[in-house]
Amino acid sequence: MTRTPLILVTLALSLILAGCGNRSIGNKIDDQFLGPDVSNSISRAHADLASPTSRIVVTSYNGVILLAGQTPRAELKDLAAQAAQRVRGVSKVHNELQVGRPTSLLVRSNDSLLTSRIKTQMLADSNVPSTRIKVVTENGIVYLLGLITRAEANNATALVQSVSGVQKIVRLFQYTN
């Protein structure tokens, strides 16, 4: 009995938030399924891509895939990108995998903290459309994805540059102008 009101509230909140961006609800739902589909495709491409020697973070935004993380060999990096590109619904793959050992738990914790600090500052800045920007941090590198204007992208980049601990910023935006 308590699940029904919770489901209705969640659905209502989703519909309200869906109006905050340029993407349709369908695009958002597609992205929710696309990431796991790409991860599965990569895992099936080679045993080392699914083993603890590789750490691959897959992010999807509007059909654009970001591959971040680490894998032990360059040929595995290329194989992961090829596997991602073959998944239906993928329009573009940004292969930002680094060749090397997976990052430590401490590095990943720092990355999570950095992402939280960036998103908090974005929420507080009216010049940055935080609901239309996805922030992914991997090994101190901040990746920005979204469907925004060039001016909004510049504002977001300036904000991220002001956050302590950012090693590098990679803009993977799709521009509306």
TrEMBL record:
Signal peptide: none annotated. Residues 30-101, 110-177 form the BON domain. Pfam families: BON. Keywords: Signal. This is BON domain-containing protein. It comes from Pseudomonas xionganensis.
